[in-house]
Design brief:
The protein has two domains: 8-153, 2,3-Dihydroxybiphenyl 1,2-Dioxygenase, domain 1; 169-365, 2,3-Dihydroxybiphenyl 1,2-Dioxygenase, domain 1, CATH 3.10.180. By secondary structure, the protein is α+β, with helices and mostly antiparallel strands. Strand 6 and strand 7 (120-128) form a beta hairpin. It has helices at 21-32, 75-80, 94-103, 184-193, 242-250, 265-274, 285-288, 290-294, 301-307, 351-365, and strands spanning 8-17, 35-40, 49-56, 59-66, 83-91, 108-117, 120-128, 134-139, 152-153, 169-178, 198-203, 215-222, 227-234, 254-262, 310-314, 317-323, 334-341. The chain is 24% helix and 35% strand.
């Protein structure tokens, strides 16, 4: 008997598991312009972990840290360093979503659970994804609190309201996962068969290769196009590709980067640079060839070159993008800033220049 697909509304939040959530919250607040809106920890009767909820536009990040070695996830810090633990998906019906997903082969982690406090009922369940990353199914229709039971609006003593320039990040455009060689198609099938996603686009090593590294990538989407997950695997390159470098330092598959959308990438990148966010740089020659490659755009190419912003075009329009350097000491998680003008692409025309920029960084780290 076939089930209807799970009605996915979009990405509810992304949960990071980190060594020091208080300091990470300070970083995302001061570098990326998030507001720290809620806290869970000893003062709120949460004994096993501290958590901070950060918000900007429609983006919600949760940063959690263990308060003792007995925390069931404390091993993650040693194995992975800081990283994404859970990509939570908002659903109409948590028990139905969990039942359908597990009947279709997903491995359950947390069965449907109700958390209740004076603000109402928060429902969630979770399943395994690649590596030890999970997807939670979340429904907060009956919850009026700041985030979830256990969390309280933040005491200004801990994080006073921000007083500096807004950064202008609006939403999560896509979240990219790196998996082992030979596993990409398996995870594409997982998203198609278990969660009802469809494949949007694929790139092979002819599209994405340089002298040193190559990778394969397929993009799956669900929730009426509101959720997009590119999945990368390494292809046979002459040297160690960036995907292999990630897998080696993260010690397994995981989230490589999160793309955050803005309506004004020039203003956003200016603000982020002002806040000391470090970005990858492509050579100036990239910009000399740009007008011939992408045609007329609204932005000033000299300004884009000054900031290091990349441009690509497809049949439906163009898009602008830029990538941060890794935000951890390990060369693992980084962020993309993206602004779309009709284009639904992922910047295929920029891959070569971008990967060569990544390889220059790998050479500096001695991992190429």
């Amino acid at each position: 008997m076939s089930h209807p697909d799970i009605p996915l509304r979009g990405i509810d939040h992304v949960r990071f598991f980190v060594g020091n959530a208080r300091q990470s919250a300070y970083f995302y607040r001061n570098a990326f312009g998030f507001d720290v809106i809620a806290y869970a920890g000893l003062e709120t009767k949460t004994r096993h972990e501290a958590g901070y909820v950060l918000r900007q536009g429609d983006i919600t990040f949760v940063l959690a840290s263990p308060l003792s070695p007995e925390h069931p996830d404390s091993y993650r810090i040693i194995q992975h360093g800081d990283g994404v633990q859970d990509i939570a998906l908002a659903v109409d019906d948590v028990p139905a979503a969990y039942r359908i997903a597990t009947e279709r082969g997903a491995i359950g982690v947390t069965p449907p659970t109700l958390l209740e406090d004076e603000y109402g009922v928060y429902e969630y369940a979770s399943i395994r994804a690649y590596g030890d990353t999970t997807h939670s199914f979340v429904n907060r229709d009956r919850y009026r609190g700041v985030f979830a039971p256990g969390y309280r609006p933040l005491d200004p003593d801990r994080y006073s309201p921000r007083t500096f320039h807004p950064v202008g990040l609006k939403s999560i455009d896509h979240i990219v996962g790196n998996v082992e060689e030979g596993k990409m198609n398996e995870w594409v099938r997982f998203y198609e068969q278990v969660l009802g996603f469809s494949q949007l686009i694929s790139f092979d090593d002819k599209d994405i290769s340089t002298e040193y590294s190559a990778l394969m990538s397929k993009v799956v989407q669900g929730g009426g196009g509101r959720i997009k997950f590119p999945i990368n695997e390494p292809a046979k390159g002459r040297r160690r590709s960036q995907i292999e470098e990630y897998l080696n330092f993260y010690h397994g598959p995981g989230v490589q980067h999160i793309a955050l959308a803005t309506d004004n990438i020039v203003a956003t990148v200016r603000a982020l640079r002002h806040n000391d966010v470090s970005f990858l740089r492509v050579p100036r020659t990239y910009y000399e060839m740009l007008p011939a490659r992408i045609g007329a755009i609204d932005e000033d190419i000299a300004e884009l070159a000054d900031l290091g912003i990349l441009v690509d075009r497809d049949d439906e329009g163009y898009m602008l993008q830029i990538f941060t350097k890794p935000v951890e000491d390990r060369p693992t998680l980084f962020f993309e800033i993206i602004e779309r003008h009709g284009s639904k692409s992922f910047g295929k025309g920029n891959f070569k220049a971008l990967f060569e920029a990544i390889e220059r960084e790998q050479a500096r780290r001695g991992t190429l």
